[in-house]
Amino acid sequence: MTSRKSAIVLGGSSDIGRATARAFAKAGYDVALAGRDVAALEPDAADLRARYNVEVGLHKFDVLDTASFDGFVAGLPALPDVVISIVGLLGVQQTAESDLAHAATIMRSNYEGPSLILGLFAEKFLARGSGTLVGVSSVAGDRGRASNYVYGSAKAGFSAFLSGLRARASSSGVHVVTVKPGFVRTKMTEGMKLIGPLTVEAPVVGDAILAAVEKKTDVVYVSAKWRLVMLIIKTLPEAVFKKLKF
Amino acid sequence: MTLVSGWGRFPVVDSDVLRPRSFAAVGEAVEAGTIARGNGRAYGDAAIGTVRTVTMTGFDRVRSFDPATGRIRLEAGMLLADLVETFGPRGFLPFVVPGTRFVSIGGAIAADVHGKNHHCEGGFGRYVDSILLRTGQGEVIEASREQNSDAFFATIGGMGLTGIILEATMRLRPVETGWIRERVICASDLDAAMRALDAGDSATYSVAWIDCVARGKDFGRSLIYLGEHAGKDELTEGAAAFPVGKDPGLGVPVDLPAMTLNRYSIRAFNEMYYRMGARRAGGSRLVSLYPYFFPLDSIADWNRIYGRRGFLQHQCVIPEAGARAVLGDILERVALRGDASFLAVLKKLGQGDGILSFPLPGYTLALDFPVQGDILNFLDEIDRFVVAAGGRLYLAKDARQSRATFAAGYPALQRFNAIRKSLDPAGNIRSKLSQRLFDEV
Asked: Who is most buried in A201, B295, B411, B434, counting CB within 10 A?
């Protein structure tokens, strides 16, 4: 075994997951990628090994299969130093408005699963007295919007879970990071109209997550502009906000 | 449909732009009128499909790397910048780098890009051992010097017209450091510049910046930059063996009015630049590879300097015999005109490797012109000198040359077309450039 630090990325096949794994491997971490389709992660594992000469593990992980979480954590060869949850599902708001199953899948993918798995790691980390938990939430969780409140509410729940966990762990040596990326040009946002100056590429998010872990930041808006935008959106009176159809 | 243009922002064309996520999806994306696009740094219309443009930059994985030999297999959408930043600190650099690091590997192969070392080490394609190619016919083939060699040599410098490059295996150069020992030579006129370049033949890297607005006794005055890879023992104590490349921070935020570049501003800039360079002449110093190889990358979006209408680069190569006279004729007209860029580059090239590779033994001159006035006619006039001298224009930079100029400059075109036809009988792979210069009308 090496003495290098280790990080596991849950949702490793996403664009942000790949970029985050690269950022950590570049910084000298051994990396594990976890996702539903392990075979599909093989090329990314080969990429990380070839680029950075680090150890790369692959693990099967399905965020909707909460029953498997205990076994997943127990099955890891070692408890990592950093756990990063990138998993999430944008879904289709209009479908979710009438299709309960779709709405539930969005809620479970963005809130239930990520919170439960990070909560499980948190217990192990608290027992050990060290570790960093990173949850990728969203600016969409800062205030429910007409156009994506199913997704946004689940992200709001996840953000609240992370802030509570952070408070609980505050004097334990365990750190919790909440990441709010804003618009990122990825598979998830393909075909969406993104506002250029507010949009970043996945590697920017990966670097921001690494920096937040190393500097022990609590809440990261990946683009500083979003902090301002969301401050304005959050402080609009409800009477005004509800008339805005965005 | 999306408006697409090359780095020169001329022409701007409507195309269906797709970003496939798997090689299977790349295959499905190919229909009549498709071309692959890397990072869009070709200046003109080479990476714009007549119907569809397939963006490849998402494919940026390294498949394998052997630290003992420097042999690497990678996906074609990986940027050269990524390759330099990732493997430089591990002691390996690409053998050939062009003037910007923001090109994709696939694009560098398709244009068989050259660097400041072409006169002695050849072009990008020389260090490519094999290519995974998705042909217009729908096959995925591995092509190398031994296997499918026609497809291989047509793909090197083939401007993406043989199919979509998916992966490549190439050799990297072992280096001790990321520093270049640079020596500047000051040449007071064109004859002196060409002599200095000839004398620099044995230098690994050589390139001349030429003052293209100077006239009279200063006509053709230049600064010649020679360079060698520096060893560890040449670094001062405590210096990092591998410098860090800065992201282009300060960019050009808006399109400058075309007025900004005029004969007075260019003349003033060139005077200052020449004097500053002349002061460094004679001595040598260590320069980070980033400013040495990629001087313009430190200014993000520098193409906006030329204004909204964009700019044209005219890069020709003139065979060695008689080059002095022709370059003199061309530069004289450019100096008279006065609106060429402050970035005129003169360097020597050797023999190219691909069937349509641009380089041939001689001198290459690169000039930028803002799109304004009668520039198209002016460049046609310059082309007549190039053709008469047996020279040719660089397709990766071209947006406007005529079929006649092209055909005259590339005598291997028939052979290329035959190979292209065999790989893509239905003619699915097409770009705006091929429509303009290659395809049957």
From this structure: B434
The C-alpha atoms of residue B399 and residue B402 are separated, in whole angstroms, by: 10
CB contact under 8 A, B61 and A190: no
Q: Does A28 touch chain B (CB under 8 A)?
A: no
pLDDT digits (tens, 9 = 90+) for B390-405: 999 999 999 999 999 9
Distance from C-alpha of B347 to C-alpha of B210, rounded to nearest angstrom? 10
Distant-in-sequence, close-in-space partners of B11: CB < 8 Å, separation ≥ 6: B5, B44, B45, B399, B432
For residue B62, the chain A residues in CB contact (below 8 A) are 46-47, 50-51
Q: What is the ipTM of this complex?
A: 0.89
Which residue in chain B is spatially nearest to A49 when comparing CA positions?
B64
**What single-letter DSSP state applies at residue A108?**
I
Of residues B63, B87, B90, nearest to A46 (C-beta): B63
State the pairing for strand pair B128-134/B52-55.
Answer: unpaired
Q: B115 by DSSP, 3-state: which?
A: coil
Arithmetic mean of pLDDT, A54-81: 97
Q: Is B21 on the interface with A (CB under 8 A)?
A: yes
* Residue A151 is a catalytic residue: yes
Torsion-angle region of A4 (φ positive above 0: left; ψ -120 to 50: alpha; else: beta): beta
> What is the per-residue DSSP string for B220-239?
T-EEEEEEEEPPGGGSPTT-
Binned at pLDDT 50, 70 and 90, residue A240 comes out as confident
Could you tell me if A180 and A218 are in contact, meaning their C-beta atoms sit under 8 angstroms apart? no
Q: Residue A196: pLDDT band by 50, 70, 90 thresholds?
A: confident
